[in-house]
Design brief:
binds FE2/S2 (inorganic) cluster; 11 helices
C-alpha cells in the first residue's frame, strides 16, 4: 500500500484523546512529531505545564516518513557548508548534531525505549567523481569528525568513498511513541486529532483555537515542520521537497548493515536495512522533487524501485511512501524565537536531517524558554536574516514560486473533461473560468474543491502516487477530502457544492 511507511507498519498501538475543553498551560506545542514530543519531555522535566496539540496521530507525520538515520553531517555534505561558513562554524554544526544523537541514545537507555537503536557507520561513496569525496573527507577531518576507509566486501561495486564510524539508526516512530508514553500525565497532556486553526497573540501570551477547545498559553512552539500561517520571512527562504522511500525483501536474504549514502551519476540514493519480528527489509530513499511539481509522482517511485532492483535484486517491494522536507536557503535550520522578543518559537528548515535537528531544536527551545544559556542558540537563531548566505538560493526559490504562479494562472487548464477522469484519479479543470480540483472516487463520485491553496493562493497539483493535492509554492498538501495533511495552510480547500 502506498504512503504506508515501514515505521507506520512496525509501530505500537497507541492513541491519545481529542481535546474537548478549554485549557491553560505554560507552553502549547503545535505538532506531535519528534520535535514536539522531545520538547514536551524537556519542558516537563523543568517543571513547566505543557500540552501537545497534534492534528492527526503522534509521530505519524513526517517523523515516521523519514529514514530513521541519525548522523553528525548534513544531507548537503560539509563542502557546501564550508563554502558559506568558516571551519569553526561547520565544526560547531557537527558537534551540535552529535550532541542530539547522543541525547537520543541516552534517552533510549534511560527509559528503556524499545526502538531498535544501534550505533553503526555512515558510508559515503560515489561511482563518478562528481562530489569529490576526497575534499569532503578533508572537510570532515577539519570539522573534527573521525573517518575510515571503506572495507571489502561492500554491498555495491565500482564505487569509492569513506565512512563515518559511530553514527546511529533507530525506528523513529517507536522512539516517539515510547517517549510520549513516558511523559503523558501530570503537567503534560497529549491530544490527537486536535487541529489548531488559529494562533492569536494576547497581552499575556497566546490563545490557540483548535477543533476541540481554546488553549491559553504563555509560550507557543510551532513544531509543525514548517510554521503554520503566512510567515513570509520563513516561507520565502524554505524550499519544499518531496522524496520517496521503499522497503523491500531481497532475493539474497543478505541485508547490508549501516547507513549508505551513494551518489550514482550525481543522484543521491540512501539505503539501510531494518529488522523486526524476524523480518528483514532493505530501505531505499531517493528521487526528490519540489512539492507539487512532479509531472508523474508514480514515475519517481518506479525509478527508485528500478534503482533498488538493479543494485540489490529485489524479491518483493513491501512498503512505499513519500516524505517531505524543507530546505533552508542558507543551509541552516531556523530554531528559536520568531522575532527577538517573541514568545512564539519555531523549529523549521531541517532539510532531510529532521530527526537530529528536531531533537536539537527541542533542546535549544527548552533552554530559551527556561532561561538557560545554550551554546548553539545563536547559530540557528530563527530571527536571523542572512541575505549574503542565502541570496542565490533565496532568489532561486522565489523565482520558482513566482514562475509557478504565472504557470498556474496563465497556461494551465482549459480542460473540462470530467468524464475522462478515471476512478481513483483527479485533475484540475476549468469550470466557469475557475480552477477546480476534481477527484473521482473509486465508486465514481466526484469531490470538487477550489484549486486555490488556502495558504497564499497558488494552484494545487494532483499527486497521483499519494492521492493528495500538493501546493507547489510552500508545500501544503491536502487529502482527497480537502483537509490539510501538512504544510503551512490552516484551512482546508474550499469545497464546491454539487
Ligand atoms: Fe503557500 Fe500553497 S502552500 S500558497
Amino acid at each position: 500500500m502506498f504512503t504506508n511507511s515501514i515505521w507506520n507498519a512496525h509501530a505500537a498501538n497507541q492513541s491519545f484523546s481529542e481535546l474537548n475543553e478549554d485549557l491553560t498551560v505554560d507552553v502549547a506545542i503545535v505538532g506531535g512529531g519528534i520535535t514536539g514530543v522531545t520538547t514536551a519531555f524537556l519542558l516537563k522535566e523543568r517543571g513547566m505545564k505543557v500540552a501537545i496539540l497534534e492534528a492527526r496521530e503522534i509521530g505519524r507525520g513526517t517523523s515516521s516518513h523519514s529514514t530513521g538515520n541519525l548522523y553528525a553531517i548534513t544531507d548537503n555534505l560539509l563542502e557546501p557548508l564550508r563554502s558559506k561558513y568558516d571551519k569553526e562554524v561547520v565544526g560547531k554544526i557537527v558537534r551540535a548534531r552529535e550532541s542530539a544523537v547522543n541525547f537520543i541514545e541516552q534517552t533510549v537507555q534511560r527509559f528503556q525505549i524499545e526502538c531498535d537503536f544501534k550505533r553503526l557507520p555512515l558510508y559515503l561513496f560515489e561511482d563518478k567523481n562528481e562530489k569529490d569525496l576526497g575534499a569532503e573527507r578533508k572537510r570532515a577531518e577539519e570539522a573534527g569528525l573521525g573517518t575510515a576507509d571503506l572495507t571489502e566486501p561492500f554491498p555495491v561495486s565500482g564505487i569509492k568513498g569513506f565512512s563515518y564510524p559511530d553514527q546511529a539508526q533507530f525506528n523513529p516512530l517507536l522512539y516517539i511513541q515510547g517517549l510520549a508514553k513516558v511523559i503523558e500525565g501530570e503537567n503534560c497532556s497529549i491530544y490527537e486529532n486536535t487541529r489548531v486553526s488559529d494562533i492569536d497573540k494576547t497581552d499575556n501570551g497566546f490563545i490557540l483555537k483548535t477543533t476541540g477547545g481554546r488553549v491559553t498559553a504563555k509560550y507557543v512552539i510551532q513544531a509543525t515542520h514548517t510554521p503554520k500561517g503566512v510567515e513570509l520571512q520563513y516561507h520565502t527562504v524554505l524550499g519544499p521537497y518531496r522524496e520517496y522511500g521503499i522497503a523491500a525483501k531481497l532475493q539474497s536474504g543478505t541485508y547490508p548493515e549501516g547507513i549508505f549514502w551513494g551518489y550514482f551519476n550525481g543522484d543521491k540514493f540512501s539505503f539501510r536495512s531494518y529488522s523486526r519480528g524476524g523480518e528483514q527489509y532493505l530501505l531505499c530513499i531517493g528521487r526528490p522533487h519540489k512539492v507539487g511539481q512532479a509531472k508523474d509522482n508514480k514515475e519517481h517511485i518506479q525509478e527508485l524501485i528500478s534503482f533498488a532492483e538493479e543494485k540489490f535484486k529485489i524479491k518483493e517491494v513491501v512498503y512505499k511512501w513519500g516524505g517531505q522536507n524543507y530546505k533552508p536557503a542558507d543551509l541552516l535550520p531556523y530554531i528559536g524565537r520568531k522575532t527577538s522578543n517573541s514568545n512564539e518559537l519555531i523549529a523549521t528548515g531541517f532539510s532531510t536531517d529532521g530527526l537530529t535537528y528536531g531533537t536539537l531544536s527541542a533542546i535549544i527551545n527548552t533552554d530559551i524558554i527556561t532561561g538557560r544559556k545554550n551554546e548553539y542558540e545563536a547559530l540557528f537563531k530563527a530571527s536571523r536574516h542572512n541575505p549574503a548566505k542565502a541570496s542565490k538560493e533565496f532568489i532561486k526559490e522565489n523565482f520558482d514560486v513566482a514562475a509557478q504562479l504565472v504557470k498556474d494562472w496563465l497556461s494551465r487548464g482549459s480542460d473540462e473533461q470530467l468524464k475522462n477522469i478515471p476512478p481513483g484519479e483527479a485533475q484540475v479543470v476549468k469550470i466557469d473560468n475557475k480552477k477546480v480540483a476534481v477527484y473521482r472516487t473509486n465508486g465514481g463520485e466526484f469531490r470538487a474543491f477550489s484549486a486555490v491553496c488556502t495558504h497564499m493562493g497558488c494552484i494545487v497539483n494532483w499527486n497521483n502516487a499519494e492521492k493528495s493535492w500538493d501546493c507547489p509554492c510552500h508545500g501544503t498538501r491536502f487529502d482527497v477530502e480537502g483537509e490539510v495533511l501538512e504544510g503551512p495552510a490552516f484551512d482546508p480547500l474550499q469545497r464546491i457544492q454539487e
